[in-house]
Specification:
Elements (H helix, E strand, L loop, with lengths): L1 H19 L6 E5 L3 H7 L4 H21 L4 E8 L7 H20 L1 H5 L2 E6 L7 H14 L5 E9 L1 H18 L9 H5 L12 E4 L11 H5 L4 E4 L9 H36 L1 H14 L2 H19 L1
Parallel strand pairs: 1-2, 1-5, 2-4, 3-4, 5-6
């Protein structure tokens, strides 16, 4: 009986959360933490936890598509994971290999036109896993309905260091001039495939750190971060909706701050030159939401009256 009550409450809460959120993020990146602790909690070994986590990954892919999210990045195997003992590492490689082939042949992947991409130092992986990566990427290369990035042998610091080295080599060889070193030049050298800026990072398992995950794409975009307690195999649609709610709360706060800064700027400029203030306000209105644009216009009108007096 109590199980039925809990399920009913969860479904009701999920509906409430669904009504609370709006458009949501475009790109969600997830640190799938807690597989081994989940296995120990249930009396199993690490591979049991990874298998349970693989099912959660499939569920999250479905939920993201339903919610209109366009890109999902899963932190599946970090460069630090190579330090794990072989009896843990090899079954994990087996599972990733199997899932890549399974996804590459899945009807739902092809029906939804999901493009599968691996990011990270894939050359460090065993041959059999690299072959699975190549197969999944080639089978979905022509799709653009949804993007699934699988971070394998990935480390954010190593990625940035590699990009910096590539930029230095390009400048040294004359391929790139120092004046042309910009965000785009770094973006092109960051990973095997382009990745959108990250809007929301979610970490499961209770730890509150982002573990060297997509630092360029997340920090540069001031991504929202949501830490939650459930181990990755326990992660639910409600947890995903909570993460999206965190993202939207941060966006609303950011827009308010941006509007306040815009109004302050108009005030400062208006004290110097009203004509310049109008030009600045015009540009700001194009970049702000309608509510922010109305505030800027109101402040400009107020300043115009004060200066006319």
């Amino acid at each position: 009986m109590f199980g039925w009550v809990r399920r009913g409450f969860r479904r009701a809460y999920e509906r409430v959360l669904s009504r609370e959120i709006g458009d949501g993020p475009t790109h969600v990146a997830i640190i799938q933490d807690g597989n081994r602790r989940y296995a120990r909690k249930h009396g199993g070994d690490a591979p049991d936890g990874h298998r349970a986590g693989a099912q959660t990954a499939e569920n999250v892919l479905t939920w993201c598509e339903e919610l209109g999210i366009e890109e999902l990045t899963l932190y599946t195997f970090s460069t630090e994971n190579f330090d794990r003992p072989p009896h843990e590492r090899e079954p994990l490689f087996d599972l990733i290999e199997d899932k890549l082939y399974e996804f590459a042949e899945s009807d739902r992947v092809h029906d939804s036109e999901v493009v599968i991409r691996a990011i990270g130092e894939v050359d460090m992986l065993p041959d059999r896993l690299r072959e699975a990566v190549d197969y999944a990427e080639s089978r979905t290369a022509d799709y653009d309905g949804f993007t699934l990035n699988v971070a394998l042998a990935y480390g954010g610091r190593a990625e940035l260091l590699g990009a910096a080295r590539d930029v230095c080599h390009a400048v040294e060889s004359g391929e790139l001039s120092p004046e042309d070193v910009d965000v785009s030049a770094v973006d092109q050298r960051l990973s095997r495939k382009p990745v959108r800026d990250v809007d929301l990072i979610i970490r499961t398992g209770g730890d509150e750190r982002t573990s060297n995950f997509l630092p360029w794409h997340a920090n540069g975009n001031e991504a929202a971060v949501y830490f939650c307690a459930p181990y990755w195999p326990e992660f639910s649609r409600v947890d995903l909706l909570r993460g999206i709610r965190t993202y939207e709360s941060r966006e609303k706060s950011w827009q308010r701050t941006r509007t306040e800064r815009a109004v302050t700027l108009v005030r400062a400029v208006a004290e110097v030159e009203l004509a310049d203030a109008r030009a600045v306000a015009g540009r700001l209105r194009k970049q702000l939401p309608s509510s922010g644009a109305d505030k800027v216009s109101a402040e400009l009108a107020k300043r115009s009256d004060e200066m006319a007096d």
